[in-house]
Amino acid sequence: MLATPKTMMDFFRKSEGVWFTQRTVHHFDTVADESGESKLYVGVVPPHDERIQTICQAQNIDSARATGGASFMWQAHGDVGEPNADQAAVLVDIPDDETGASGKLLRNQGYIEKIPVICRYWFGQDGVLTIDTEYDQNQGQERCWFLTDDFRVRVSTVRMLNGVYLMTYCSERRLIGESDLTQMVQRNLARQASDPMVGP
Prior knowledge:
The chain is α+β, with helices and mostly antiparallel strands. It has helices spanning 8-15, 50-58, 178-194; strands at residues 17-27, 36-45, 68-76, 89-95, 102-107, 117-123, 129-134, 139-148, 151-160, 163-174. The protein is built from three helices and ten strands, in the order H-E-E-H-E-E-E-E-E-E-E-E-H.
């Protein structure tokens, strides 16, 4: 059964790993098509990490309110090797209360404008995460939800003063590494050993 995240840190932990992203972008002007494929690297950042302290200080927010955060790195799908960790975007979770169902996300750099921003987020009863971001010249909204533990969907819009600028749809599939495959094989072998009715 799918366990739907109800807090931002649960969402970050469920998202940790490498994802293959297929992105469709619809612009409402003559900008070149930005659809394509990429890899997304997500890592959980603990609350005592110095990046948490630095981002909170820059936004004049007490870092003791932070429950942790996550780093996000993007890479073209055909690129080999690890992406540059120094270019990672870092998000810090500041929940509104102990439920963690809503709160603020501090970003050291935004997706649309590369400036520090504060976002609002909340989780719906259906498990959908919504993030609203106010930039200097734009407004962004992103919605994300898991269909399975290893497949999720992201939909976003960017609005300018004269209306919607672009819409993006991303389907993301978790990439499985060699160690993951080994663990899966071992689990299946253990199941077969414990239950003779389980086939290969």
